[in-house]
Amino acid sequence: MRFSFYDTFTDSALDARPYSLTQENPPKLPTWNDTFGGNLGGPLVIPHIYNGTDKTFFFINYELTYGRNGIDTFSTVPTADERNGNFSALGTQLFCPAANPYSASTALGAALEEDCPTPGGLLNPASPSVIPANIMSSLPGAVTGLLNFIPLPNLPGTAQNYHLQALVPITQNSVNFHILQTISPKLNASITYSIRQMNTQQIQNFPGFMSNQSNLGQSATVGLTANISRRFIHTSTFYFTRSTAQSFNTYAYNDNVAASLGIEGVSTAPIDYGIPQVNFTNFSGLNDPVPSLTRNQTFRYADTFAFLRTKHTIHTGIDIRQMQFNTLTDPTPEGAFTFSGAMTSETGSAGLPVTGTGSDFADFLLGLPSSTTERFGTPSTYLRSWGLAAFYADDWHVRPTFTFDYGLRWDAQTPATELYNHLSNLDVSPGFTEIAVVTPGEAAPFSGALPTSLVRGDYADIEPRLGIAWRPPIGNSQGHTTVVRAGYGVFTNSSVYTQLGQEMLNQPPFAVAQTLSSSAAVPLSLQNGFPQASTVTNTITNTMAINPDYKPGYAQIWNLSVETSLSRTTSLVVNYTGTKGTDLPVLYGITGAINANALTAGQTTTVANSQGFEYSTYGANSIYNAVQFRIQHRMSHGFMLNATYTYGKSIDDASSIGGGAQAIVQNSKDFAAQRGLSTFDQRQQFRLNYTYEIPLGDRHRFAQKGLTSAFIGNWRLSGTVSAHSGTPFTAMDYNSACEILPGVYSERASAVSNANLPAGQQTPLSWFNTAAFTAPVGGCIGNAGRDTIIGPGAFTWNAQLGKTFAFGRDQTRHLEVRWESNNVTNTANFTGLSTVVNSSTFGRVVGAASMRTMDFTTRLNF
Question: For residues 570 and 641, is the Cβ–Cβ distance under 8 A?
Fold first, then answer.
């Protein structure tokens, strides 16, 4: 029996200071973490009860982590003058809103009537950049209440002028158990069980926006392998996984903040108590975490057969999965309010705000959002889905120098159903002129009969897999050889059906869902951002429609590589790989009559009986090509190295394969304009792994014996070096008059030149040429392409230095010590860019990754 103990300790006293974008010598948080664990394993022997020396083996691992993690973020908040209604520093002129949503019997309603006898005129002709004093003294309680949650600047300047630093506790426990049992010479069983539990806190960008989070994950596997004969092996495996995640903000079940602020039309359920979401163009918003509880679990059974022949190794089998997604949450229960500056802007001849007028924070002080959205009402939802797969693969050794792999896989997943049929979709007419709400069991007027999932499944995808390995007759007697490998495969993203099911949850008639834009006919306010349906001419408020014939996207992947040995221990691999994505997800914005301004953005004809919705379908494409060079030096004379350089490019019109947030198509009449670099594109990538055994100590060249060998011998130096170029970003124009859907932005800016600066001119506060972009003139469609701004790259060197001390009888016990340092060079790696045209942070880097950190690990093995 063997057992070991280990401990890893990290303390910020040994770390470098955090990198600050706008602050010199920022303070270093006193963070620390300690991880303690132990392993126990070997034959299962219980004296006088059970002796499993030759047939039962077990392994147990326990690990505990506890400590204090740091939160270090920068935000942009209004200055004291701006909080008092004075925007003179920006030179912004403020104009009267087109409509007054407040009653004349209220203080603010009367003040607006007094100062705005003519809608659209200057709010304060004597001081065009200042909100009049009588209005500032009449601000509604919802505004003054929310203003208390926005801190004053603690750094100079008007951008990234608030620095939040805080410590949050974290505790994590995990147990892993594994047992192997030999039932008979031909039958073996295995059982594995793992459980991991974590508790922590999170703080958003401002104090007061805190959440307590807990996660519990469990997995169990039971497998049975039967060696029926020397050439026939049968394996059956049952898998079970369950994950529970719970998050509650400070106010849930305790303080109904929205009600106390007088905000109407939002959820009053105790679990949803909290602060409404507030979004700005130029400032960091209020984002109170939404309470949620998820309990997802999967049951899976796999049955495989292996047939071993002289030249063939055949694998075939089936895989059956049953997936359950159980959620208790309301997506936007307290409402989301967007302030863009349109309400205090001058309106030009094209119906769009005039540059240099209006302020998003001035809109907020007046309590005039440009758009609002909410979704709540049926917090408990239970999605169910089945997955089925079957495969056949043959590893055919045609000749000693040539192997041919081929196979087929059928992989399908059923569209998700809801246990109580709480799904709701919008059935859209062929010309996108009419819609109808459809729920399970109801007839769809335009699409015909639908299953209870409201989406028809696609089960006809067959995925071929091909591969070869060939050693051509070139080489020499010193063992220098060359191997050529090639492969091709098709992979279908059938898991998208789960996402579609989640989008049809929390929709009318089972929940309240609205997405509104303020207009002269129906002006919105912070207190009354969700007027009753009787005051809105559009009766259908569902925010999502799914194509009932949605087809899962698929990727074709191919590669060709040549590996040649440069010596007995060193080889060179040159590899080309490509990926072609087809039928990827596409998201359109369909406008309702209340949001008719969006028609100027080239969107589909207005649907008269809708407030506007997103339409999810398929049809996008992607292409990725890359060449890779890899040098591999196997361990020789105490040195090992693996270095890889990749040069590639990814282009698409919807970055759903490989990562990236999905964006609404800017112009549905010109889908080709969506094509551009993928959001995850990285032109160049380099990675190096190395290990070097210092030539001191036993079995080395120097200091082979004695105390010298014991203390300075057998040290290992290892590490990784990685570097990559930046990912691209898109210049956006957040103009509420052009919103495809309120709160969801896809309008791009107009480009007048190349925005990318030479490397020597890029700084964190000016990463690209902001003068290269302007807001679209005379319309809503910008001519800038997707992902034309190349963001910051990164360089990281992580290193480890370790040694093993042998002791005890026959030197069979070991003490391992290891020092690790991440980001050895203390390089500032920037994260994210602000790309909203004319915003206060336009052109700036958003943040920076961690600087140099260190930790120490000790492990004792018996």
Answer: no
